[in-house]
Automatic annotation (TrEMBL):
Protein name per UniProt: Carbohydrate sulfotransferase
Family assignment from sequence similarity: Belongs to the sulfotransferase 2 family.
UniProt-listed PANTHER family: CARBOHYDRATE SULFOTRANSFERASE
Key words of the record: Carbohydrate metabolism, Glycoprotein, Golgi apparatus, Membrane, Signal-anchor, Transferase, Transmembrane, Transmembrane helix
Provenance organism: Porites evermanni
EC number: 2.8.2.-
Membrane topology term: Single-pass type II membrane protein
Regions that span the bilayer: 12-30
Pfam families cross-referenced by the UniProt entry: Sulfotransfer_2
Intracellular or extracellular location(s): Golgi apparatus membrane
Top-level taxon of the source organism: Eukaryota
Length: 311
């Protein structure tokens, strides 16, 4: 009887052990199986491949630029927000849907809950979203080494025009006269955009004195950071949702419906006011933005340059 009892206990223990290993194996598979056509993050492979191409281009082009060995201590991390709950670092660039991203990431931080907030409440601090620059150097390095790092860019000429229409065009003629005192008063109104462009070009392109709304991308989101996700504004509705999927919050929320830029229809209208030389100078000024992030020059201004070449 006693031997029979021991035998049954032995069989039971063996069965439980088998069940335990089967369970552990299933849990491992659920964590590691990748569906066909998807990366481990759930992002479609075709999009994952596109982002990887952008990342590689970013690395290749940034290698041509001298690196700052004291980057962690000296870089301006004002535009790097940190969400510890998501282990996410997001470098935001002015005039690339900042208000939308502020709301989306604040919602993501709060597990998908929509939290009322003012659109431009403390823009540099992004409300209750932390900044990387508030951390000591050692902590900055740890965060950049271990967190998921994302950023979005847009076609450079479109961003420069967007900044003009949103931040500059509405100012009185007095401001434009300060930029170009020799311009006759009667000519200022119809030449606001060329005056603005010439003011942009008057700066050394490496200067941080350039207004943040048209400052170069690599001055805001430095090359020394190896970004995991580089999105393009031109396809924001799709790529915004892909970022939510990559950081694991797409089951809690969706990227909001986004209307295309109001500046896009005006590109040819405004840039046709520039001379051929000014367009080429502007392209040279933003050369690294074009090269690092895969935008072609002259891009949307190709037809304008063709026409001006024939004049």
């Amino acid at each position: 009887m006693y031997r029979m009892f021991l035998a049954r206990c032995k069989d039971l223990c063996f069965g439980l052990l088998v069940l335990f290993f089967v369970y552990e194996g299933l849990m491992w598979m659920s964590d590691n199986i990748v569906l066909v056509g998807e990366s481990k993050s759930g992002v479609p492979e075709w999009f994952d491949s596109k982002v990887e191409q952008r990342r590689q281009l970013h690395r290749d082009q940034c290698e041509k630029k001298p690196a700052n060995p004291k980057f962690i201590e000296e870089a301006d991390f004002t535009y790097f927000i940190v969400i510890d709950e998501l282990k996410l670092v997001f470098c935001w660039i002015p005039k690339i849907s900042c208000t939308t991203w502020k709301r989306v990431l604040f919602q993501a931080k709060n597990n998908g809950t929509i939290v009322p907030m003012r659109a431009h409440d403390d823009g540099n601090n992004w409300g209750h979203l932390g900044r990387l620059r508030n951390h000591p150097p050692a902590e900055r390095k740890r965060i950049l080494d271990t967190y998921y790092k994302a950023m979005f860019v847009r076609e450079p000429f479109a961003r420069v025009l967007s900044a003009f229409k949103n931040k500059v065009e509405g100012h009185s003629n007095d401001m434009f006269k300060r930029w170009e005192p020799s311009m006759p008063d009667a000519h200022v109104e119809k030449n606001k955009f060329p005056i603005y462009i010439r003011n942009v070009l008057s700066y050394n392109r490496s200067s941080l004195a350039i207004n943040k709304h048209w400052r170069l991308y690599h001055q805001i989101c430095p090359c020394e950071v190896d970004y995991d996700f580089i999105g393009h504004f031109e396809d924001l509705a799709l790529e915004g949702q892909m970022l939510l999927k990559a950081i694991g919050v797409d089951h809690l929320m969706s990227f909001p419906e986004y209307h295309s830029s109001h500046s896009k229809p005006y590109l040819l209208q405004y840039y046709s006011k520039l001379t051929k030389e000014e367009i080429y100078k502007l392209g040279k000024f933003y050369e690294l933005d074009f090269k690092i992030f895969g935008y072609d020059f002259p891009g949307p201004l190709k037809e304008i340059l063709k026409e001006k070449e024939l004049q």
